[in-house]
Amino acid sequence: MATINDNYLKLKAGYLFPEIARRVKAFVDANPDAPIIKLGIGDVTEPLPKACRQAMVDAVEDMGNRETFKGYGPEQGYLWLREKIAQQDFQARGCDIDASEIFISDGSKCDTGNILDIFGKNNKIAVTDPVYPVYVDTNVMAGNTGEVNEKGEYEGLVYLPISAENDFSAQLPGEKVDLIYLCFPNNPTGATATKEDLQKWVNYAQENNAIILFDAAYEAFITDESLPHSIYEIEGAKNCAIEFRSFSKNAGFTGTRCALTVVPKTLMAKAADGSDVDLWKLWNRRQSTKFNGVSYVIQRGAEAVYSEAGQAQVQDLVSFYLENAKIIREQLTAAGFTVYGGKNAPYIWVQTPHNLSSWDFFDKLLHTCNVVGTPGSGFGAAGEGYFRISAFNSRANVEEAMKRITAKFQV
Ligand code: MLT
Known about the structure:
By secondary structure, the protein is of the alpha/beta class. The protein has 2 domains: 14-43 and 309-408, Aspartate Aminotransferase, domain 1 (Alpha-Beta Complex); 52-306, Type I PLP-dependent aspartate aminotransferase-like (Major domain) (Aspartate Aminotransferase, domain 2, 3-Layer(aba) Sandwich). It contains 11 helices and 15 strands. Strand 5 (179-183), helix 6 (195-208) and strand 6 (211-215) form a beta-alpha-beta unit. Helix 3 packs parallel to helix 8 (296-303). The chain is globular. The protein starts with 15 loop residues before the first helix and ends with a helix. The model has no long low-confidence stretch (mean pLDDT 96). Bound molecules: D-malate. D-malate (MLT) is lined by residues 41-43, 109, 132, 187.
């Protein structure tokens, strides 16, 4: 009989968001008329920018003509898209990133998991706590951890707590680690990192020959001009960091699927025989073997993000969600809640009222306000007592949700 990857048996029951969906479905089945408002998973609600839609329509027409039809594209993505990204997202901010170091993919969630294919089994891995659960679960699946304990922590991972006490900025690991996941603006806390904060991590990585896996999926929400959008704005980062970016949250591509990963050609790691190996080559080999690229039509849509009209429309979308975040922050604060984030990020990290556990507050909010959020403990043990509210929804829904919550909860 075939055997399984036993590492999957170590995983906690369900991935966080399907577990939330399961609970919401059970509630809706029992209360079919409940006017549910979802501020849980960070899924966008507003339509795709017009520039992107038009580019996709034109690209569909290209596919209808023998002369312009496209079959398999380059596994790394079309050069015309990668060049625009290199110029506008990186070089324009002073980052020395070349188009050849950019790999187009169908999502940062996939890439942050898939990247483990090119790393060895004996790496010491650090994650913040709370953290985007994909980083942890994919390491469990890959066999990079032991069993989970009663706190929900996996043996073998190094957890770096982030909380109000340390201003949601993790301390450097007390022990030597090889891979470090960082996410700024942060999911789930909405915290940001200054250049000095990131320099500290880059210095650590260089001193310890570690690699930083930097998730910048929410960089478009940075409005504070002093904050870095890319880890490559930090000196030395090209020698120690891989960066993940996405079109999901800025241009509304959660259902359309397009993202990118930057693997600088200067990035090296050790083979078992002690020799230095170029990570770009490995990732290129991995992608060429296991991935056939994002569709031509979608890449044309992503390219339109970099047009003048596209840039303005994306900015409008980002500003719209940031205004939602402001409304959430202000109304909850006025009702006495303690809130964090939501200024340069689409997530608001809320202390649960009256010492409720994260899941108890989730259930109360669902049952009494018909509002769905995300329990902080779902992101890690240190998220207990917190709750994440997403600003991705219509203005009317955000306002209605705040009206219901502030009517029921005065803290
Ligand atoms: C979230 O809610 O944390 C995000 O939507 C997850 C994701 O982007 O995969």
